[in-house]
Specification:
mainly beta; SH3 type barrels; 1 helix; elongated
């Protein structure tokens, strides 16, 4: 176990505070649609060489989310479903600070995360169901109906529509009804 000095804890707190203040601005810019396709204005590169913020998914059914970057930090909560999308907002060594679809933040060890892209259908919606289309357009035929909070696999996104799969059904849904992909982001 690595022992950190008080100054190291302060540095971590400052890093986390700086990043968490900068990330919502980048996320807000992305939400407003001002970002370019496949990138977000204000996106930074983390120590891993990968962009911050970015979406990933959980690898396993039981993942501890900690109050800080290290096993010596308390467990804040436990995820119990593999595949859920989370947003990485900061990195410290092999730890990733994540945000979930409800806005809660905590730290997860990097190897418990996957680059596989998933999304949650309209977790904020009060609708009883949303439409999956056979093609990327409002006039395309109905493929299926899905309820809010359904976990889907992201197959591709063109910046406006995403092709998603859930169980044995594949269809297109508007990108702005998904949590787990940025507005105007392209996914191949």
């Amino acid at each position: 176990m690595k022992v950190l000095t008080i100054s190291a804890y302060i540095a971590i707190a400052l890093l986390a505070g700086t990043v968490s203040l900068a990330v919502p601005a980048a996320h807000a810019a992305a939400q407003s649609g001002d970002g370019a396709t496949s990138s977000i204005q204000g996106t930074q590169t983390g120590p891993s060489g990968l962009p911050l913020p970015r979406f990933v998914s959980l690898k396993s059914d039981r993942i501890n989310v900690r109050a800080g970057p290290g096993q010596d930090h308390t467990i804040s909560w436990i995820f119990s479903k593999a595949g859920l999308p989370v947003e990485i907002v900061a990195e410290y060594e092999n730890w990733r600070r994540i945000r979930d679809s409800e806005g809660a933040e905590g730290w997860i060890f990097h190897s418990l995360l996957s680059g596989r892209r998933t999304a949650i259908v309209a977790p904020w919606s009060k609708e009883t169901d949303l439409v999956l289309r056979r093609g990327p357009g409002a006039s395309d035929d109905l493929a299926a109906r899905v309820e809010p909070n359904v976990l889907v696999d992201l197959n591709e996104c063109d910046g406006t529509w995403c092709r998603v799969s859930v169980k044995n059904v594949t269809g297109w849904i508007t990108q702005d009804t998904l949590w787990g992909v940025y507005p105007k982001e392209t996914v191949n």
